[in-house]
TrEMBL record:
Keywords of the record: ATP-binding, Cytoplasm, Kinase, Nucleotide-binding, Nucleus, Ribosome biogenesis, rRNA processing, Transferase
One Pfam match: AAA_18
UniProt xrefs under PANTHER family: ADENYLATE KINASE ISOENZYME 6, POS9-ACTIVATING FACTOR FAP7-RELATED
Name of the protein in its database record: Adenylate kinase isoenzyme 6 homolog
Enzyme Commission no: 2.7.4.3
Lineage: Eukaryota, Fungi, Fungi incertae sedis, Zoopagomycota, Kickxellomycotina
InterPro entries in the record: Adenyl_kinase_AK6 (IPR020618), P-loop_NTPase (IPR027417)
Family note: Belongs to the adenylate kinase family. AK6 subfamily.
Binding-site positions, ATP: G18, G20, K21, S22, T23, R114
Single annotated GO MF: AMP kinase activity
Single biological process term from Gene Ontology: rRNA processing
Organism from which the protein derives: Smittium culicis
Main location: cytoplasm
């Protein structure tokens, strides 16, 4: 569905693993009473993958399966979508892209606390340092809808949730990016 026809916006919250996507997404979805979609969990639950990558302790994403599965779900709007990548989602799906960022010291501690293997920690640290997810978002979507937010602390998270909630409350379905 064309974004201009939706009464409620769709928001993608993305960022390197450990930046607070899931917590922020769940909080926003609950506050605004939107559907929360954790794409990583969806991939596992609905087998939207091509097997498991033991080296990085993750699933091989099947983009076509994910997009096909989500197409009707996001069509009417009112979704908060949480995933660590964004360049494969159709541009028409989202009205706001939030890229969460974290300082490397904070991110490292979070990834260690999750018991990620060293290779996975290094890969994610490098992604954050090189701002891979932010660049992906800026390359894939209109710059006007991409917003970078810091996510180092509970205070940042609260500010981010408030920012997104406020943005949703001001959403105009007749907008143009």
């Amino acid at each position: 569905m064309d974004a201009s026809k939706r009464a409620k916006p769709n928001v993608l919250i993305t960022g390197t693993p450990g930046t607070g996507k899931s917590t922020t997404s769940e909080m926003v979805a609950e506050l605004v009473e939107y559907k929360y979609i954790n794409v990583g969990e969806l991939i596992k639950t609905h087998k939207l993958h091509d097997g498991y990558n033991d080296e990085f302790d993750t699933y091989w994403l099947n983009i076509d399966k994910v997009v096909d599965h989500l197409e009707d779900i996001v069509a009417d709007g009112g979704c908060i979508v949480d995933y660590h990548s964004c360049d494969f989602f159709p541009e028409r799906w989202f009205d706001l892209i939030i890229v969460l960022r974290a300082d490397t010291e904070v991110l490292y501690d979070r990834l260690v606390a999750r018991k990620y293997n060293p290779k996975k920690i290094n890969e994610n640290m490098e992604c954050e340092i090189m701002q891979v997810v932010l660049d992906e978002a800026l390359d894939s979507y209109d710059h006007d809808i991409v917003k970078e937010l810091q996510s180092n602390s509970v205070s940042h998270m609260e500010d981010n949730v408030n920012y997104i909630q406020d943005w949703i409350s001001r959403f105009n379905p007749d907008h143009t990016p």
